[in-house]
Amino acid sequence: MNKNIIAVAVGALGFVLGLGFLGNAIKNRNKSENTISVTGLGTKQFISDLITWSGSFSKNNFDLKSAYDELAQDRKVINDYLLSKGIKQSEIVFSSVDIQKQFRSYNDTNGNYVQGEFSGYNLTQTVSIESKEVGKIENLSRNITEIINRGIEFTSSSPSYFYTKLATVKQEMIASATKDAKERAEKIAENSGSSLGNLKKATMGVIQITAPNSNEDYSYGGTFNTSSKEKEASITIKLEYEVN
């Protein structure tokens, strides 16, 4: 008799607890459904304030020392030329010399590759410039044929453009994107006859930097354009609000 009473009591208690858990689950489910998720966009256009540019030059000779001496002469001509264009010595950086042995190669009658006799040394060196005088370095890179006209085998690369105040731009875009997202959420809540509650979650996307009015693709890890002096940065902020 006592065992039956205990069993009934335990069963009743379990039923009551079960109703409590079910009630909380329904409440929490409804609470999670009463939310608004919106994505805001922040953009900023700016002009690069830092430029880098580089070029390489080389010499060929059967004698290694002669090749090195000739390369050193070209290096002095290039350095003097850059200084004459107003480039500071501290902005000019020459790399170490790359030395490669050259061989005359050919394919035999069976089509097999054959490395032939030694044909000399090829020495290559790179000169690089980093400067905040963007316009000056741009003009230099466009008129580099002046070095070639001095008998130097010189290959110029395209300039790369950067912005040193990117952290400030990012903060401005985050503020703009957050404001945009909140205004969107408020408009959605207003149109549905509700009001915004507490902010539950905020998720920031990666910064994307492209050339203005370009068709560059965004990437999952973020895009960083260095080929354009003018740039446009964008970032997204996703906000999730409770709705009252």
Keywords:
Translation Initiation Factor IF3, SIMPL/DUF541, 26kDa_periplasmic_antigen, 244 residues, SIMPL domain-containing protein, 6-stranded antiparallel sheet, disordered N terminus, UCP029033, Alpha-Beta Plaits, alpha+beta
What does the oligomeric state look like here? Answer: single chain
CATH class value of the largest domain? Alpha Beta
The CATH superfamily of the largest domain is identified as Protein of unknown function (DUF541), domain 2
Helix/strand class: alpha+beta
Please count the beta strands (DSSP E, at least 2 residues each).
Answer: 10
CA gyration radius, whole angstroms: 34 Å
Low-confidence region ranges: 1-31
Shape category: elongated
In whole angstroms, how far apart are the ends?
53 Å
Overall pLDDT confidence: 86
Domain count: 3
User: What does the main sheet amount to?
Assistant: 6 strands, antiparallel
Please bin the fraction of helical residues.
25-40%
Number of helices: 5
Strand coverage percent: 35-45%
What CATH architecture of the largest domain would you give? 2-Layer Sandwich
The name of the CATH topology of the largest domain is Alpha-Beta Plaits
